[in-house]
Amino acid sequence: MTPFAKGRLTLRVIPATIPSATPYCGQSGLEGSVMGDASYASKGLRVVLLGTGTPNAEPDRSGPSVAIVVGDASYLVDCGPGVVRRATAAQAVGIEALEPKKLTRLFLTHLHSDHTAGYPDLILTPWVLDREEPLEVYGPTGTQAMTEHILAAYSEDIRDRLSGLEPIEAGGYLAQAHEIKSGVVYEDDQVTVEAFPVVHGSLPSFGYKFRAPDRIIVISGDTAPTETVVKAVRGCDVLIHEVYSSSRFELLPPAWRRYHSKMHTSTRDLAEIAAEARPGLVILYHQLSWGATEEELLAEIRDRYDGHVVSGQDLDVY
């Protein structure tokens, strides 16, 4: 692990030992380098964990959000609490694609509050910080209504900034919502983004697969284990997947055991998914440990899966 700190901000670059069949996966290409190196923008696809938390208010883990970075372009998946400040922390130590005014693409897995509480922040703060173009948002049914309600809630703020003395771009506060179905939902010169359905209670929910020339990244979002997830993961370089501790699950009250078993993925289930689909690297996020240590959580998976797996932390780069 190569840390780079600026002030109180620390970003970890994770060099990984990957089997030769997947030589690129998890290799940052930045080992031993400084994150502020100007050559960073020319690197291939990178994964930046902006938030690895859950609904629990953990001080070291912001709400769920993952940034896919290719050169000077960024693509955010979910926007939990603290998303813009985490992006700014990454930008401050060299990832210029995460400068707030460059945050213009968002993909929502589902509309639970821990994955969307940062949505007003992502609409408004980058606008105040000189974003000139609308935020393009892709998400499940309900995304349009959520977007309209947020803009209505902040209508007085928007009116005052536009009509007052503040020198601000007129279009930067807008958010264009695109309600999606399964399949390819976005494509540009850098990436193709495919949505696939996942099971997370009654909410319409998706995982996302990002294809770039050098890597394929899969982000599960919140989901119970399904064959659809296994199919999406096959052939990917990096799988970023939610997880809960199988051992600590047994200590929960019956109502919570029933809930989590239907809504989320245990360490045992994730080990079986990974063993069948064989991703190059598994990164744990949205970790429900209930007191288990990171080492214990990883051991629960490694007991049934012999591939490469790591516990993600905020501001890790892969």
Helix percent reads 25-40%
Count of distinct strands: 16
Decide which structural class fits the backbone. Answer: alpha/beta
Mean pLDDT: 87
- The first-level CATH class name: Alpha Beta
CATH topology: Metallo-beta-lactamase, Chain A
Strand content: 25-35%
Gap from first CA to last CA: 11 Å
The 3D shape can be described as globular
Q: What is the CATH H-level superfamily?
A: Ribonuclease Z/Hydroxyacylglutathione hydrolase-like
Order of helices and strands: EEEEEHEHHEHHEEEEEHEHHHEHEE
CATH architecture: 4-Layer Sandwich
Radius of gyration: 19 Å
> How many H/I helical runs?
10
Structurally, the number of domains stands at 1
Within the largest sheet, what's the order of strands? Answer: 9-10-11-12-13-14-15
Largest pleated sheet: 7 strands, mixed
Ranges with pLDDT <50 over ≥5 residues?
1-9, 16-42
Protein architecture, described:
The chain is 27% helix and 25% strand. Helix 6 links the parallel strand 12 and strand 13. It has a single domain, classed as Metallo-beta-lactamase, Chain A. The chain has 10 helices and 16 strands. The strands form 3 sheets. It has a 7-stranded mixed sheet with strand order 9-10-11-12-13-14-15. Helix 6 crosses helix 9. The protein is globular and about 60 Å long. With 318 residues, it is an alpha/beta fold.
What is the strand and helix layout of this fold?
Layout (H helix, E strand, L loop, with lengths): L1 E5 L2 E5 L32 E6 L13 E6 L2 E5 L5 H10 L12 E3 L5 H4 L2 H10 L6 E5 L3 H11 L1 H9 L11 E5 L3 E5 L4 E6 L8 E6 L4 E4 L7 H7 L4 E7 L1 H4 L4 H10 L3 H11 L3 E8 L5 H9 L6 E3 L4 E2 L1
Parallel strand pairs: 2-16, 5-6, 6-7, 7-8, 12-13, 13-14, 14-15
Antiparallel strand pairs: 1-2, 3-4, 4-5, 9-10, 10-11, 11-12
Helix pairs in contact: 6-9, 9-10
